[in-house]
Amino acid sequence: MSHPVPSPIASVQVMQALVARELVEGFGLPERKAAALLGIVPSSVSQYLSGKRLGPAISAYFADERVRRIARQTAEQLVKGGAGSTAVLEAAIQLAEGADHESRSRAPARDSLSPELRRKIPGWLRNRIAGEQNAVAECMRLAQRSRDELTRALFRQIASDSLRHAEIVASLAPYLDRGVASSTPTGISRADVQDLIRREHEAEATSEIDLGPELGGMMRILWESMESDEHKHERLLQLLLEAGLIDAEGSGETRERPRARAGRSPRPT
Questions:
Q1: Of 176, 208, 230, which residue constitutes the final position of a domain?
Q2: How many domains does the chain have?
Q3: How far apart (Å, rounded) are the C-alpha atoms in residues 54 and 56?
Q4: DSSP character for 222?
Q5: Which of 190, 167, 8 lies closest to 99, judged by CA?
Q6: DSSP symbols for 124-192
Q7: Tens digit of pLDDT for each residue in 94-151?
């Protein structure tokens, strides 16, 4: 059974839901105990089981014997207590890699940009940088007009993000100008990234409540901004794991480097 290639964040959420169902329905654990093993709040487990979160997607994955076997084995590891906080993460990687393997078998790939794209890229880069710089200026203007610290904080954050976006585009420019469409990370290992992901998960697990729904106005907006950043960090780290990192420092062994998909190009804004 094939599935769409899930994003790294979606893979973790799907696997959390599947393992939660195995823990509660397969091993007979209370929802609170299952939540503790997964490092999430009990309400999340309840929403996974009721279908309020992810809904039809979970049913489709649960019907896939390969995916369900991964979830069952992960649940067993958690119950035995020897898996640690990375069990669900490792299972999510298996889920994403399995779907991505099916996708790669259907789609051609390449490492370099087409001549047509290379002609268009310089203009796109200039327009993108100019747009981000304009956004920085406008956000700073609005921050100065704001009369409270929380509103000013929001616009300063957006300005900072836009400035960073312009810097990213400038960093990509030399590679794109040479027609390069893929680059392998260097200097860090998979273990480094996995340890960072584990630390972030442990930090998130220290809160027993989801404070966001309890807040309103600018407080809610800023909280959601922080949560969005956390999801973005997890997605970036998961992508980094898939980008050809060495398995161990100095081992010389690398995972297969994903190649740029044909037809994918920068989107003008």
A1: 176
A2: 3
A3: 6
A4: H
A5: 8
A6: HHHHHHHHHHHHHHHHHHHHHH-SSHHHHHHHHHHHHHHHHHHHHHHHHHHHHHTTB------S-BHHH
A7: 776 655 444 444 444 456 677 887 888 888 888 888 898 899 999 999 999 999 999 9
Pairwise CA distance, residues 11 & 239, whole Å: 12
Residue whose token pair is 């794209």:
117
Q: Angle 35-36-41 (CA atoms, 0-180°, nearest 5)?
A: 50
Same domain, 219 and 144: no
The residue segments making up the domain with residue 243 are 181-269
Which of 130, 151, 176 terminates a domain? The answer is 176
- What token pair was written down for 104? 């790669």
pLDDT digits (tens, 9 = 90+) for 33-59: 888 888 888 888 888 888 777 666 677
With contact defined as beta carbons under 8 Å apart, do 222 and 211 qualify?
A: no
Q: Are residues 240 and 269 in the same domain?
A: yes
In a domain, 1, yes or no: no
- Buried b / exposed e across 120-143, counting CB within 10 Å, b at 16+? ebeebbeebbebbeebbeebbebb
- Domain assignment present for residue 3? The answer is no
The identity of residue 133, as a single letter, is Q
For residue 91, how many other CB atoms are within 10 A of its CB?
A: 25
